[in-house]
Amino acid sequence: MNDGMMEAFGLKGHVALITGGGSGLGLAMAECLAAAGAQVVIAGRRRQVLDEACAHLGDSVAGIEYDVTDTGRAGEIIKEIVNRYGRLDILINNAGVHCKKAVEDVTREDLQSVLDVHLFGAYALTQAAIPYMRANKQGSVIFISSMSAVMGMTNVTAYSAAKAAVLGLVKTISGEVAKDGIRVNAIVPGFIDTPMFHQATDKDPERQKKILGHTPMECYGLPKDVGWAAVYLSGAASRFVTGTALMVDGGCSIGF
Question: What are the boundaries of the signal sequence (predicted)?
């Protein structure tokens, strides 16, 4: 890779925090950011999962136990990372939970638990990270949204509500912090071959058939498809990109 490409897409010297980074999309994004040169911290609730991920990914990835619903600790977690590495350049709000139920079966507790992770947890970390990014006059915050935020989908009302709210955060926060050199964007993955996807679809072959029939590329995405999109939104190549949602969906959202 020549110097121009390294300057545009390389992340050497950057420090990134990825929530839910021990598996699925989070693990793929950690692998891609580390390959681009970043020091990556993956956060999650399960120590064993984090340790296994770090052993797989190497010395440039470290794990930190953190449940994003414990919003009172958000500032402490960000400060711990900054104290250890001297900075925080990239925050990827990826941690997620699913809730697949018919609308009449979704309880207030179901809705609250999904919002606590996708919305309130992500908001708290973003709020805590912004002052450090502002002090450095640079930063990239990435939220992971979903097809269910942009298309009507059945049996995922709590999840779609949370993921649609995330897109609202991207638009509003990006406008507030752009002058400080901080960019805020979303990645909207299509149907990606991850454990969470299989949890939602393995017992529903008709849904799988419908998904592939609605995806012009006629296949599921790979986790690294999202990982490389995250690399792009993290570095200089996307320096003039903020407040947007990048579809990584094989064309699913074109609504043909």
Answer: none
